[in-house]
Structures are given as C-alpha cells and as structure tokens.
Design goal:
The chain is an alpha+beta fold. Helices cover about 60% and strands about 15% of the residues. The protein has a five-stranded antiparallel sheet, sandwiched between helices. Strand 4 and strand 5 form a beta hairpin. The termini are far apart. The relative contact order is 0.13. Forms part of the ribosomal stalk, playing a central role in the interaction of the ribosome with GTP-bound translation factors. This is Large ribosomal subunit protein uL10.
C-alpha cells in the first residue's frame, strides 16, 4: 500500500487534472508509444506556443479526473501509454498539433477527445484538425466584409476623380475660349 504522502500527491494530481479538464474547451487523449525525447520536446514546444497543455499521465489518474467531471465516454480509450492535451483557448489546436505530429512521426496516435462537451473519435478529431482555427475564420470573415467596402470606396473615388477631370477639362476649354 502506498504511503500517506504518495497517496496525497496522487489525490492532488487528480484534483489538478480534473480542474484543468473542467476548464478546457478541448481535451484530446493520444497514444505516444515510441516517441523519442527529441520528438516529444519538439511537440511540447509547439503545444506551448499554441496555449495547449500536454501531459503524460497514468490512465487510472486520467480516469479518476474524468469521473470527477462526470465524463465516462473516454474510459474505453484509456489503454496503453496515454498522453492528454488540453486547451482553454483554441478549440482545434490540440487535435491539429497531435494530428500534424502523428503524420510527421507516425508514432503518435489519437485515441479520442472531447471538444466543447461532445465526445469525438480519432477519425472525427482528424477531420476537426483540418479545419482552420477560430482566428483564421474570423480573419477570413473580416477580409470578406472589408473587400466590398474597399470596392465601394474605389468606385466612389473613381466618380470623384472623373468629376475632377471633367471640371478641369471644362476649365481648360474656358481658358482657351477666353484667350
């Protein structure tokens, strides 16, 4: 039986993980078997840059943390070595980064995940990973809204330019007639 101190640390770890899962918009679990330290470090750096927390945690601790949040759908995926990626900011980032590194290194395999409260399989997460991020979508919408406005400004400027040219031509004609 584990000592009181070790047991207390595990309870603390479960509570912290449960809180992070509760706050996260996206939680993705993956199999990381065979990943080298160099590959793991590279992936963790990419995750940090995107605001994603990535941890390797024992399946029993993940299971307890999920149960604290009344999530039982991921229990069947908690077999073998498991890593968990969570994001409170970008909904797509954990799946996108894990999918990217899965394609690059062929060792990381998505198992399943929860995106905004809905459970997704590995295949569905791969499809979600292909979507642009929220910021990219907003940029596209704003760009799409700005484009017609710029067109309108150019048309209005064109009419004003045409009027100025016409008035200059009339002024030139009057100068020639009076001269």
């Amino acid at each position: 039986m584990p000592s009181e101190r070790i047991l207390q640390k595990k309870i603390e770890a479960v509570n912290q993980l449960a809180e992070k899962i509760k706050e996260a918009k996206t939680v993705v679990i993956a199999d990381y078997k065979g990943v080298t330290v160099e590959e793991d470090t590279e992936m963790r750096t990419a995750m940090r840059k995107s605001g994603v927390e990535y941890r390797v945690v024992k399946n029993n601790l993940i299971k307890l943390a999920l149960e604290k949040n009344d999530i039982t759908e991921l229990e069947e995926y908690l077999k073998g070595p498991t890593a968990i990626a969570m994001s409170t900011e970008d909904v797509i980032a954990p799946a996108k980064i894990l999918t990217e590194y899965s394609k690059k290194h062929k060792k990381i395999q998505l198992k399943a995940g929860i995106v905004e409260g809905k459970v997704f399989s590995a295949e569905e997460l791969n499809a979600i990973a292909e979507l642009p991020s929220k910021e990219e979508l907003i940029a596209k919408v704003v760009g799409g809204m700005k484009s017609p406005l710029y067109g309108l400004v150019n048309v209005l400027n064109g009419n004003i330019r045409g009027l100025v040219v016409a008035l200059n031509a009339i002024a030139e004609q009057k100068k020639e007639v009076s001269a």
